Predict the structure.
Amino acid sequence: MVNDQAKEAVDLYVSLFENAKIINTSYLTESVAKAAGKKPGDVSTIDFELNGQNFTALNGGPMYTFSEAISIAVNCKTQEEIDLLWEALSEGGEVLSCGWLKDKYGLTWQIMPESLDIMMRDPDPVKADRVSAAMLSMEGKLNISELEKAYKGES
């Protein structure tokens, strides 16, 4: 739920993912618009899909905001993919730590290499701990090569 920027937010999100699309857009009816203090025909909701996952954005007004209690996790294959998403989603937002950011609409994202989960679940606790320590030391965006060096004991 965003104040009144659902279309802007969804357009950004859909532009960033190869497998993404807008499924449906609904508009405020006269009675709902009147109750909300908006105009009939304004965007109400947008159903969209990112990499096979369905979402709905709602222009719900300023009374409801996001928190870090919910986030969208994106597992990236390459550093280039991490860099692209990080640059676009953090613009105008807030950089958090360990691969987390808050976009300009207030939605929290985890932009991570897909190999991170594999390395952190390694049955060797020493390897997993080295990766965890490396990740925790990264302010903002994660660096795949540094995480892999930690995993291999090279850093």
Remarks:
- Residues 127 and 151 are 5 Å apart (CA to CA).
